[in-house]
Specification:
The protein is mainly alpha-helical. It has a domain at 31-124. It has six helices and no strands. The chain has helices spanning 17-25, 39-59, 67-91, 94-97, 103-128, 138-171. Helix 2 packs antiparallel against helix 3 (67-91).
Length: 172
């Protein structure tokens, strides 16, 4: 049996520049009041409000009996939560305190994927709405389909603005 090794009592700590910059700059929380007055800001608020309508109109029905509506629910709730997250990031100007993240690329990927998946979900939603399926839920599903297409167009607009921002950033 080997004797136990003596323990070292030396503790070494290191600090990265990332944590030093983050702690130094996060003492005050900025608020960008003007963001909501821009077209991308208005589109984000519209995406949140109408996205909420999309998933609540479906959630109030027996959507779980039909897999197509489960897909629409997933896309609607997933992007609703992420859009709120990004709105908070833009409103609090968090992107200025974390410069290591390529925010223009992240915004383009987010809005582009939201546009594509919401377009698919809106088409699935619209093609799944029939009076024969369940006439009790017909109006809710039809309304959710309409609002899904409106939200899709909002994400298309934000994808365009994200692309313009990304392109101007990469050309510099």
């Amino acid at each position: 049996e080997l004797p136990p090794r003596p323990r070292s009592h030396t503790v070494t700590t290191t600090s990265s520049s990332f944590t030093a910059n983050l702690s130094a700059s996060s003492s005050t929380l900025a608020y960008d009041k003007e963001f909501l007055r821009t077209l991308p800001g208005l589109l984000m608020v519209t995406e949140i409000v109408l996205g909420l309508l999309v998933w609540t109109l479906i959630a109030g029905t027996e959507y779980f009996l039909y897999p197509a509506f489960g897909w629409v629910m997933f896309v609607a709730v997933f992007y609703w939560v992420l859009t709120i997250f990004f709105l908070i990031i833009y409103m609090t100007m968090t992107y200025t305190r974390i410069p290591q993240v390529p925010w223009t690329t992240v915004g383009l990927c987010f809005n582009g994927s939201a546009f594509i998946l919401y377009l698919i979900a809106a088409i699935v939603d619209a093609s799944s709405v029939t009076k024969e399926l369940d006439s009790h839920n017909y109006n809710s599903w039809a309304a959710s389909s309409f609002f899904a297409f409106v939200v899709t167009s909002c994400y298309a607009g934000n994808t365009y603005f994200s692309f313009i921002s990304w392109r101007s950033r990469t050309l510099q």
